[in-house]
Design brief:
The chain is α+β, with helices and mostly antiparallel strands. The protein is globular. Helix content is 20%, strand content 32%. A hairpin with a 3-residue loop joins strand 5 and strand 6. Helix 4 packs parallel to helix 5 and helix 12 packs parallel to helix 14. The structure holds zinc ion. Zinc ion (ZN) binds next to loops. Zinc ion binds next to loops.
Amino acid sequence: MRMYATMGACAAVWACATFGSGVALGASAVLGVQDVAFSLKIAKSTDEPLKTVSAAEMKSFREEAGRLVWRGHPVLGNSFTVTAERKSVAEGVEWGIKYEGNDTDWFVEEVSFPEWTVPRTDGTKVFVPRICGMVMAPDWKKVQPRQTVARQGPGFGAPHCIAVLGEDGNSFYLDQRGEARFHSTRFEIAQGVEPGTCVLRSVCILPITAESRRAYRVPYPSVAAKFRGGWFEGVAIHRDWVHGQKWYKKAAARDFSKLRDVAMWMWNRGRSEVTVPPAVKFMKDTGLKVALDWYWWHGVPYDTYYPNFWPPREPMSSFKAGIEAIHAAGGYVQPYTNGMLWDCDDAQWAEGGDDSTIVLRGGKVKCTMFNPYTRQRQAWMCGEAPVFQDRVRLVERTIRAAGMDGVYMDMIGHAAHGCCYNPRHRHPKGGGRHMVDGYRAYVEKVRADNPGFYLSTEEQGEAYLELFESFIFVHSSLERFGVGTLPQKELVPAFQAVYHGAVVVFGSYATIDDRPPWDERWGENPFGEETEELEKKYPDQFAVEFVRGVAWGQQPTVHKFLMEHATSPRFAADYAFMKDTARFYHANSDLLFDGEMRAPGRLTCGVERVAFLQRGSYTKPDGVKEVVQNSLPAVFHSVWRSKKGRTAAVLVNWSRKEQAYSLETPDVKSRGTIPARSWMSVEGEAR
Ligand SMILES: [Zn+2]
């Protein structure tokens, strides 16, 4: 089965076909131990390059009573022993690994296990937990043996699992469980050594200590399984484990009362006179609740002089009046802060910057010039950063006192993972779980400082799921960000398939005039006074970016929504679609806010060629590009089951003409037409 196979003159198949029940095939179906190996990355110091040690170099191997034992290595010594433990579980095989007996001066910095070799064809695709989930179609013929085709970590967008998706539906799954969500880990998928094979790898990045040099046990298991199906059926194996965990249940039990009725987010930027009136107007026009995600309210230029967010860039009287106007209209408001960056050029850097920052392997400070206009460097803070954290905590308390409902703490969910080698820090150098532990303790303090105050962060943080009420996902605008196009790269809602309803998700970069915002505090706008009506050149970009995430159960979000966008005839059609989408989302919130995602099945519909403007907030005039999706399905869809047992598909036709469709899923079967720029639900059998 090929995804996006052309079906006649103008049709496509969306998502994966469903292969039987899609369940894991169990332990007996997992390949034999000859297909499982390990490798290590070792070094004598973190200033030296890593050297790879493989299972094939070990002097002896034996299999005994559910254990694989390798002993003796030319570099790590004759007593060096690696033991893999194998246990049958319902889904497949649960693997654990430890080593001991290293009496050399080499440190083990990474353990890659299992490395599971499986068969593939040239049409085999792979699923990786990138962004909210990505299916990739590697060009296997161009990939050298052992070459990696996909990797992800130590930050994960989607759940901690990968899969190799067979053309015939025979697929392979590998995960990380237990406390893995706190650890510095990685997944890789690589070309196999033998023709017609590929390798799934789970990688643990170790804390570097005298004890871990001698012996170490990877502190979480990995489950390997064969299954029938595509990305959804693979992710569903992990979902079933996640849904049994206390931390998931705690997250899912929250009531999200402040956000439950939100039908539109406005990701607006600037002073209250710009950000607030369009949100108020939308609430008056629809009677629905808007959440304002308020950027560029702060005095400092965006991505410059963090964390000096306070005071606002306008008089306190008008700033507070803006908050009150949102509340008076029934809305919710949260401002931007960054929970992770400290500007190296901040006057207060000398008072604790070097003590707080992440230092990379090799000794450099982890520092990025995000803003090409102010060109200032922002350093990434370690979880062990009390001076920085105290400064941010003060900012968040001040924001709450100003009357905000919550606050956005940028980057943490997406980026507060991985390693630090800062010699000033008490935590072990390298990986382990110190980074997440430090950030979790810091976020818990912000929560304790501000009872009832909602916290929001960037993208998908499994490690922080129960500590934030909402996540922003903006990669529903994936073409704009250069993520890739079909059929090589397909974004899929794997995060939502596991976590929907346990945290509020919103976001898109959909801008009704297609033009990114400009912070006046960056200086002169290099684009000058732009008059071109970009929405005529890219007539579908807004609709596609806007509805893609909603079809995945995200709260509708528009970006840089200005008063003229709600009042000018120029934007009237798109504004009407915004209002219709908000109404549909609100009317179906039992599915789209609270429901459980079901298998997407097979949707056949027309495809459209869509050109997108590839331009973000920091794109310079000579960097603007156009990217084209040649065969984008004109109908997006998903399938849900509500808590009360309603099962239904939601479909949206984002195109400017009526579309015929045919949908077949385990829950819903339907065919018909759907009008241009409209939503519909198709009921399945109630259970
Ligand atoms: Zn550190």
